[in-house]
Amino acid sequence: MTATAASLPTLDISGTPRVPFGRLVKVELRKSYDTRAGFWLLMTIGILVVLAETIALLVTTINNEAMSWGDFVAVAAYLTGLLLPVLGIMLMTTEWSQRSAMVTFSLEPHRPRVIAAKYLVGVILTLLTAAVAIAIGLICNVIYGLAEGGSDWHFGMDGLFGFLITQTLSMTIGFALAALLLNTAAAIVLYFVYKFVLPFVFGIASFYLDWFDNASKWFDFERAQAPIFEMSVNTGAEWGHLLVSGFIWLVIPLTIGLNRILRAEVK
Amino acid sequence: MHRGGGVGHSVLMINVEGLTRRYGTFTAVDDVSFVCQPGRVTGFLGPNGAGKTTTMRVMVGLTPPTKGRVTIGGHLYQDIPNPGLHVGVLLDASAQHAGRTGREILTIGAQTMGLPMSRVDEMLELVSLDKTESRRRLRNYSLGMKQRLGIAHALLGDPSVLILDEPANGLDPAGIRWMRGLLKGYADRGGTVCLSSHLLNEVEQIADEMILIGRGKIVASGTKDELLAGAEHTTSLVTALDNDLLAKKLTEQGISVTPAGHGLRVETQPVEIGRLSVEHGIVLTDLRAAEGGLEELFLNLTEDTQREAVPAQPAAAPQQGASA
Questions:
Q1: Is the four-CA dihedral B84, B89, B93, B96 of positive or negative sign?
Q2: Residue of chain B whose Cα is closest to the Cα of A109
Q3: Touching check for A10 and chain B: CB below 8 Å?
Q4: Each residue of B203-252: pLDDT tens digit?
Q5: Dihedrals φ, ψ of B205, to 5°?
Q6: Roughly how many angstroms between the first and final C-alpha of chain B, as a whole number?
Q7: Are B126 and B88 in contact (CB under 8 A)?
Q8: Contact at CB, A11 and B13, closer than 8 angstroms
Q9: Which domains does chain B have, with CATH numbers?
Q10: Quick check: B211 contacting A, CB < 8 Å?
Q11: Interface confidence (ipTM) of the complex
Q12: Nearest CA in chain B to A111
């Protein structure tokens, strides 16, 4: 920029620091629960975790089935795995459906910082959800131990990390699809197609076609994630499947979506 | 209170330079240049769809320009750190989450800018939103309340520049009067105000400087007096005790006269009528230049850029055809 006479600074900005990233995260976190939709989504996740683990506790004690701490957490993980992507989606799309992005981006014109803050909030809420699931699992396991005369505390660091990683990936897929579509309903539909319809279709195709069974490992991200649960991504092929399918389902939609968000007009 | 500027009228705060924005083949803003100065209210006036909003969106970096640029105090908007502290923006009062309360919307803004929460109460008081109203969700706000909240949001960071798109929209007459006082006071303290409107009366009352835009192009700019200097008053309205006598004398001078209400509409300047009435001893009870000088100018200037043609003309054409 050339400092011609016409563009000599008349606004002194030397004493103003940019908005710290931590503050953006704090604000985005607040925005995730200060509306009814946001608040009840988070409450629903919490309530479902408690309900699911309580039901698991009742059923297993009545039937005298063997349960471990890890098993209780796994029950909750299935449900949160469905709802965390919706959380990831809403963090992103609400700004567009409510058109508040106009205000958000006038207060912080560096859009990547806002998007990064939103993603970090997604990760924070995912970890919080995981912590709740693990805590409730612990309580259930204690009660199970009292009822059945002994608890199995098998959970393990591998299980813990596998749980945290897959939950974060679930949220991230929602976030990526939302960035791509910028529309809550469309992103949720696409996510459920990805989560339920595609594995079903892939399963049938793989059953009849051997070549498809091999090929689908490279683009079926859900299947590629399976080894993470036990933290046993051992072989090079498993890593390859994970990276390639992850690239397809995370990196591609996120890249296209972010490109659009960063360049497009904010209406 | 306000930073920057104040050194006479040569200081530029908002500088729009050769701004063009195209959407495919449609040119929304066509090579527009103008400036807004500190201590003044600049009114951006034009019919709907003239390119006012697009220009203002480019100012704050929400719409990338096709050509040209806008600087605020010498900086591109995106280069201003924590811009809320320097530039107050209200582009669309409804563009907020409908499920948040007014207070919550201001709280989020204040938190982003790093302001104390007392600022939220101050602003709510300034725009006269009471406690109950501030705790209502935005979806239950009237347009006027949304507009007040939007102005409060723009003023949160005590900025030295204000960019307001149609801020009077939805305000009742008392509200418009309140806003006029608010913005005048703000400009008097050295602030720069750029506001848009499609209503001449609004801008005429508030703005020191006017930029008239039609179909993406600036058609005129200047102070109200400068704009009116171009358009001479050649029509007057006059009422005399003896209208018939006055009409007769005027007609004798070759000046055309038509009855209008209780008086006459005369195709000459008021001074000519005054002179004539003194010469002939006709007592006048009312004499003034025909109203709507600025309005006529506005309509004329934006005539070929209006969506609807001015109704008088198409209506007149067939009559002429019939009489011929």
A1: negative
A2: B78
A3: yes
A4: 888 899 999 998 899 988 888 878 776 556 577 889 999 889 999 988 98
A5: -80, -30
A6: 68
A7: no
A8: yes
A9: 14-229 (3.40.50.300), 234-289 (3.30.70)
A10: no
A11: 0.88
A12: B78
